[in-house]
From TrEMBL:
Region of interest (Disordered), residue spans: 175-199
This protein's name: Ras-related protein Rab-10
Pfam families attached to this UniProt entry: Ras (PF00071)
Keywords noted in UniProt: GTP-binding, Lipoprotein, Membrane, Nucleotide-binding, Prenylation
Source species: Steinernema carpocapsae (Entomopathogenic nematode)
Gene Ontology molecular-function annotations: GTP binding; GTPase activity
Presence of the UniProt keyword Nucleotide-binding in the record: yes
A Gene Ontology term for the protein's cellular component: endomembrane system
Length: 199
């Protein structure tokens, strides 16, 4: 049997209005790429990236959801099993910020109770077009006891930090005793047949 390439698998979800930069954030983190052409996500898309965190290899399965209303019935099913959710708004778009309350309600309705949440104010490189102050972002994050960062997929600001911080918060919740046992057992199982068995 092939050895598992990772210790833990975390399912993360990116949600928020259409056009706030969810896909750009995902591609910047997974491929270190930025695409200036906006192509709306149809339904759902996902990427996988394995990171090292506190001596563990963690496979992140990151789901990028469509922001448009017509896809909401598809995307709500992806909340199930999500361990971390990033709510993204665009600092140059007041409506996308106002809708964060609606996205938070969606999480309450469809996600597990202990899901880790993080609020991202994206496009912080566009300071001249800012309509949502950093203070407003911080305020809503404090009200809901969630982490907050301003990011820019284009300028690569806080993208890695956002994913690592969220993964670390999930890792902190994991029962610490769950991994050592199977690791100890495996070598014994694989050794046994190779001792020139008599049967």
């Amino acid at each position: 049997m092939a050895k598992k390439q990772y210790d833990l698998l975390f399912k993360l979800l990116l949600i928020g209005d259409s056009g706030v930069g969810k896909t750009c954030i995902l591609y910047r983190f997974s491929d270190d790429a930025f695409n200036t052409t906006f192509i709306s996500t149809i339904g759902i898309d996902f990427k996988i990236k394995t990171i090292e965190l506190n001596g563990k290899r963690i496979k992140l399965q990151i789901w990028d959801t469509a922001g448009q209303e017509r896809f909401h019935t598809i995307t709500t099913s992806y909340y199930r099993g999500a361990m971390g959710i990033m709510l993204v708004y665009d600092i140059t778009n007041a409506k996308s910020f106002e809708n964060i309350a609606k996205w938070l309600r969606n999480i309450d309705e469809h996600a597990s109770e202990d899901v880790e949440k993080m609020l991202l104010g994206n496009k912080c490189d566009m300071a001249d077009r800012r309509v949502v102050s950093k203070e407003r972002g911080e305020k809503i994050a404090v009200e809901h006891s969630i982490r907050f960062l301003e990011t820019s997929a284009k300028a690569n600001i806080n993208i890695d930090k956002a994913f690592y911080d969220l993964a670390e918060a999930i890792l902190d919740k994991q029962p610490s005793h769950s991994t050592p046992d199977p690791v100890k057992i495996r070598p014994v199982d694989t050794d046994t047949p190779s001792r020139g068995g008599c049967c």
